Amino acid sequence: MAIFTEDNIVEYFPDLHNFGIQDFNEFITKTEADIHRLLRIEWFPTLRVSSGDYEPSKVKESQLTRSAVYYSLYKYILPQLTQWAVEGDSFQTQIEFYSRAFFDEFDLAKRELFYDWNDDGTYDESERELQPSQRLVR
Fold first, then answer.
1. Closest by alpha carbon to 9, among 98, 108, 84, 113?
2. Percent helix, strand, coil in the chain (nearest 5)?
3. Which runs of consecutive H residues, i.e. helices, occur in the chain?
4. Which of 18, 54, 74, 105 could pair covalently with 40 via S-S, beta carbons 3.0-4.6 A apart?
C-alpha cells in the first residue's frame, strides 16, 4: 500500500499535468522513503513503548497522505518547474508555501499517528501514540 498516489497530488495541484512532467512514480517513491526516514528518526524514538526497529508497514499510511503530497511538491516536483531566477517566480513561491505546509502537517500527523504494535493488520485506539507537546518523554 502506498502513502499517496498521483491522484492525491492532483487534488492539491490540479494543473499538475500541464507542465510536461509525465511520470511521477520516481517522486512518489523518493517521497515515501523520505517520510519513513523522518518517522524513523524523529517520531519512533519518542514513543513510550518503542522497542525494536521502526517498521514502515506498521504505520497507518493514510494519516500521512497530505504530508507526503506537500513534501513531494516542495521537494521534488516544483523544483523541476522553476527557473530559479534571482527575483523568484511563482514556483519558488509555491515551494516555500508547500515546505511550510509540510512541516506543519507532518508535526500534526506525528502527534496522533497509529502504529500497528500487535501486528494484526488493524488499528485501534490503543495503538495510537498521542504525543503531548510539552511533556518530556524518556
1. 98
2. 60, 5, 40
3. 6-12, 25-38, 65-72, 78-81, 90-111
4. 54
Stretch 85-97: mean pLDDT: 91
Of the candidates 53, 48, 70, 50, the one whose C-alpha atom is nearest the C-alpha of residue 3 is: 70
One-letter amino acid at 55 equals E
DSSP, collapsed to helix, strand or coil, labels residue 21 as coil
**What's residue 128's pLDDT?**
77
What pLDDT sits at residue 50?
60
Cell numbers standing for residue 36: 519513513
pLDDT at residue 30 greater than cutoff 50: yes
CA triple 94-90-76, angle to 5 deg: 45
Q: Are 89 and 80 in contact (CB under 8 A)?
A: no
Contact 82, 89 (CB under 8 A): yes
CB 99 within 8 A of CB 39: no
- Its pTM stands at 0.87
**Rounded Cα gap, residues 63 and 77, in angstroms:** 21
| Domain residue limits, the chain | 6-127
The size of the chain, in residues, is 138
